[in-house]
Amino acid sequence: MTSQVSSPAEQADEADEPMVGVQRKPAGTKDVRRLDRVIIRFAGDSGDGMQLTGDRFTSETASFGNDLSTLPNFPAEIRAPAGTLPGVSSFQLHFADHDILTPGDAPNVLVAMNPAALKANIADVPRGAEIILNTDEFTKRALAKVGYAASPLEDGSLDGYHLHPVPLTTLTVEALKEFGLARKEAERSKNMFALGLLSWMYHRPTEGTERFLNTKFAKKPDIAAANIAAFRAGWNFGETTEDFAVSYEVAPAASAFPPGTYRNISGNLALSYGLVAASRQADLPLFLGSYPITPASDILHELSRHKNFGVRTFQAEDEIAGIGAALGAAFGGALAVTTTSGPGVALKSETIGLAVSLELPLLILDIQRGGPSTGLPTKTEQADLLQAMYGRNGEAPVPIVAPRTPADCFHAALEAARIALAYRTPVFVLSDGYLANGSEPWRIPELDELPDLRVQFAQGPNHTLDDGTEVYWPYKRDPHTLARPWAIPGTPGLEHRIGGIEKQDGTGNISYDPANHDFMVRTRQAKIDGIDVPDIEVDDPHGARTLVLGWGSTFGPITAAVRRLRAAGESIAQAHLRHLNPFPRNLGTVLKGYDTVVVPEMNLGQLATLIRAEYLVDARSHNQVNGMPFKAEQLATALKEAIDG
Q1: CB contact at 8 A, 117 and 90
Q2: Helix spans in 550-605 (H)
Q3: Cα dihedral 526, 330, 358, 473 sign
Q4: Of 52, 336, 528, 620, which is least packed with CB atoms within 10 Å of its CB?
């Protein structure tokens, strides 16, 4: 699991080359080789079902017990022109017999369903890797469409790879003859043929995929049977063809996982489950007011399935209506949530400021993507940090929590709910497309491991006037948290006014008094500054002089890079931020204990800017804004330069 600390023997296990074990050949079978890890990338046209293929291979790999990490990568267009580079969709899976952290830098195996898929991905494939090509698609027209002057099957450009030319389409159509399908219908199952072939190559279980197909096409049993037949045909092809002389085994990662019950989970699914768990632990109904936007929409889809847990979902007509409804639900006593991505945060900013003024709990889940404006809807970025910190008019501080892995999204949701409910404040959760769509094994927690998030609503008067009259003051504060009371509308005697105009301290009455405004602004800031967050932990086994500081989804690549450097004899420390506002109280002391601080980010240096401003530390930025996560090897090179410099 990504939360485990590797032993020295494992610290080099993020290298791109898998370690090959003893080759053996049981009687009557092909050679079987044992590997410690493999990176596979499925790539094809966006209509070829690559995401489904990758999902199914991942599910079977998770059930087998490997540690894994995935990277789906798909176009933003609903349906880009078939066979073109903008229409290529891919799914990368890294699985191993030990603790791993990233989807891998470079695939050991590329499955390319057409020339566009090959051309779009070949630059990432190292020499000596295996490439499986669907030769049926390598026609003159398809080659010309992506700029191939000659077929790479014939011009020698693929001589440095272990090439497996397979007529996937023809073999699939032949396998489905008995079903009487039109050729076009039969061709659509070629992804299942490829899945069967790869399942044979890597000894993946098959029962789960067959059950999945029977369930998915329950109303079309003939289609279910055809897909299962294609899947089995792919398996049998691997078993019988001489082109694949070797299959591979990757043992379960038994030592990487603490005892428990595990499942594969994506970041968006983990956030959804975390929100449901938080509402149960708080004994509050969960309300989601949202407008669909990539890559956050999956949370709306998932939560809409859980009405049995008291979840209500509202798909609004726009971003503003979505957060407005959520804030209304918070006023009404619900655990209120709104989900969005970068452009949607801008539209929600006025209502977030209103939530700051009203001092009501509200979770804003920003699943970051490439920007600005519409930007890169299906690519990842970490460029909303400063928007979350400052993207509102006036002094409107909001706490910020950032998960580090897909599974950690569950715990980040619980932590954000804890802060929102205890301190009566909106809270940002900054996930991103890499975490949202990626997946890894997740240990399902026991109920007694979950925090108690129950809140006490105001029940009656809380203030005595000079004349002895007992009244309810909506802005009388808890001396420890500075949180105001939370009163359910309609509770007798607790009537009070809310709105965006500045309030008088205590009474909540409208106030234009300069001194009162100064006091309220400083009090709201002090409430956020005083939030209890854990100290940052530093991983520094060798007393290093260089610290790499990360936040959010950079955790996996940074940790993989640090492992590589330590395995090579370098000394480097690592720390990772979950709480970005307020920062952990010991962060300044930690930073000043190192000669060099490097901050890798998928932006142009937003955390580094905050660190420099807050602590006067000359933090060095290492930045990437290409829509993809960091590669461990590139990060290791940059960190080595920082150590040497």
Answers
A1: yes
A2: 555-567, 587-591
A3: negative
A4: 52
Burial 493-513 (b: 16+ CB within 10 A, else e): ebebebeeeebbbbbbeebee
Q: Which residues contact 403 (CB under 8 A, 6 or more apart)?
A: 267, 270, 271, 409, 411, 412, 429, 431, 435, 552, 553, 578
Contact predicate 198/40, CB 8 Å: yes
Q: Where are the beta strands (DSSP E) in 97-229?
A: 109-112, 130-134, 162-166
507-515 contacts at long range (C-beta below 8 A, 24 or more positions apart): 507/473, 507/474, 507/475, 508/473, 508/474, 508/475
User: At 37, is the secondary structure helix, strand, or coil?
Assistant: strand
Burial code of 430-463, b = ≥16 C-beta within 10 A, e = fewer? bbbbbbbbbbbbbbeeeeeebeebeeeebeeebe
For 140, residues 6+ apart whose C-beta sits below 8 A from its C-beta are none
Phi and psi at residue 6, to the nearest 5°: -75, 150
| Two structure tokens written together for 616 | 């006067």
Q: Which two tokens stand for residue 348?
A: 């929600």
End-to-end C-alpha distance for the chain, whole angstroms: 33
CA distance 1 to 488: 42
DSSP 520: H
Chain-centroid distance of CA 165 in Å reads 34
Q: Could you give the residue ranges of the DSSP H alpha helices within 40-181?
A: 50-64, 115-121, 140-145, 168-175
Burial of 375 (0-12, 13-18, 19+ CB in 10 A): middle
The pLDDT averaged over each successive group of 10 residues in the chain (645 residues) is: 36 59 52 95 94 96 95 86 93 97 96 97 97 97 96 95 97 95 93 97 95 95 95 96 92 90 97 98 98 97 97 98 98 98 96 98 98 95 98 98 98 98 98 97 96 97 95 97 96 92 96 98 98 98 97 98 97 98 98 98 98 97 97 97 94
Name beta bridge partners: 439. Answer: 266
Residues in a beta bridge with 400: 428, 581
The first and second tokens of residue 253, run together, are 């990662």
> Beta strands 262-266 and 286-290: pairing type?
unpaired
User: Are the CB atoms for 204 and 60 separated by under 8 Å?
Assistant: yes
**Chain length of the chain:** 645
Burial 320-333 (b: 16+ CB within 10 A, else e): bbbbbbbbebbbeb
